[in-house]
Prior knowledge:
There is one protein chain. By secondary structure, the protein is mainly alpha-helical. It has a domain at 3-74: Winged helix-like DNA-binding domain superfamily/Winged helix DNA-binding domain (Arc Repressor Mutant, subunit A, Orthogonal Bundle). The chain is 41% helix and 7% strand. The chain has helices spanning 3-14, 18-24, 29-43, 59-72; strands at 48-51, 54-57. Helix 1 (3-14) packs across helix 2 (18-24). Pfam families: HTH_1. GO terms for molecular function: DNA binding; DNA-binding transcription factor activity. Residues 1-58 form the HTH lysR-type domain. Keywords: DNA-binding, Transcription, Transcription regulation. Residues 74-116 are annotated as: Disordered.
Amino acid sequence: xxxxxxxxxxxxxxxxxxxxxxxxxxxxxxxxxxxxxxxxxxxxxxxxxxxxxxxxxxxxxxxxxxxxxxxxxxxxxxxxxxxxxxxxxxxxxxxxxxxxxxxxxxxxxxxxxxxx
Length: 116
């Protein structure tokens, strides 16, 4: 089972409504509902009953919550250490439209220079 789906499920089970759960997860409500539907397909039954935009766990949802909480709350130390991204170099300014890069060994283009 996908741990991302389980994390979304646990957050929704602990939230007061669908909107609050979606905001906590930094996603849209529709995306959250799609994730929950996908998890329900994997489990093979309904996990929530919604009344007035408040998700209430079903008996299958309660059983899954007991299993999912330890998996989601597992400390990150057991995961592989992530490499830190190195800082980027100095950003270079754009030279504008139509300026071709200099080619080594090629003659310089003769053109009119813009006045100031």
